[in-house]
Design goal:
alpha+beta, 3-stranded antiparallel sheet, 2 helices, disordered N terminus
Amino acid sequence: MNKFTVLILLFSISSFGMIRALNTAATGMSSGEAHVNTISNNIANANTTAYKMQRAEFEDLKYETINVAGGRSSANTQYTVGEQIGSGSRVNATRRIHSMGSPQLTQRPYDLMIMGDGFFALQKGNEVFYTRDGGFTVDAQGNVKTRDGYSLVPGIVIPPNTVKLNIAENGVVEAFLSNQLEPTQIGQIPVYTFVNPAGLHDFGGNKARATSASGEAIQNIAGTENAGAIQQGTLEASNVSVMNEMTNLIKAQRAYEMNSKVMGVADQMLQTVNNIR
């Protein structure tokens, strides 16, 4: 084998290794970008009512196996440690963390908070949605709705001569009318739970849809089983910790920078190989 052939062989091996390093670092940068996007969305929603923070979850990509642990290293010996070369990472999920946010007292009768697990159900047309945002209002006919017109399930209609509204922890709604001493029960607000709330499909507006991953919604009386009790005159704050998110942002930035440096070093090494004469 002459010198020229050896150089060609070394160039091919080195180039393949450097290209793999470039690709691996690129996956790290892509993962880092997705991580920063997730963190930025959390920070942007730090003041969004009942917002649940997201956590980016990563997984490693496939490996090239050169030697298998336990495989034959010779006729009479085995490899005690394998040799594998990875190909990078990717974000495989952004998980909602459904811990409860802190209560924010408003003293407004149509502001509701679920103290524990569960969701309010909303309806628009034939579709049903779920939310933790209990900032409700009423329309001209007295129907309890969200700000953007989604009706609370079941339909609660406030009588026009109501002077006071009381919503108990179990969701029972009582209206005190101007011409009556005793309150009138006008409905009961249920709380819906899911086997896997992380499987809900979020689509903005503080609303989510049920999916096959979340399972069907389970209707509960508020404050019983696994469902939280309802607190009137209170809204749930976002569960985002800005300090934690800023710490995570710094870590994500450092990881992104390190992957970019790996790409730079791999490029320099490839250039060195290219300059061999």
